[in-house]
Predict the 3D structure of the following.
Amino acid sequence: MPGRIIEVDGERWSVIPSGRVTPYERDEFGLVFQAGTGAERVRRFVRYSPLGARRWDASLAELSDAQLRRLLVQSQPEWTSPDGLLTRARGERGGR
């Protein structure tokens, strides 16, 4: 899945679609911010409404790094996010 990489306070975060489909289909997209690897991996989830393109890949490409940083600030830790339930249900190990 194509994604993006941003740097925030010296830490690299990969940004990919969460894969969760909502009833709003093209009006709302979920993103996963992930930093670190293995047991130290941290995942945060956020949903946003695109202002331009209505396809997740085009919408993600339209977001600036500054917009992605703002979304990261608004995001939820994996254990508090409904989108994080998918990763836990699949048996993937998440971060803090």
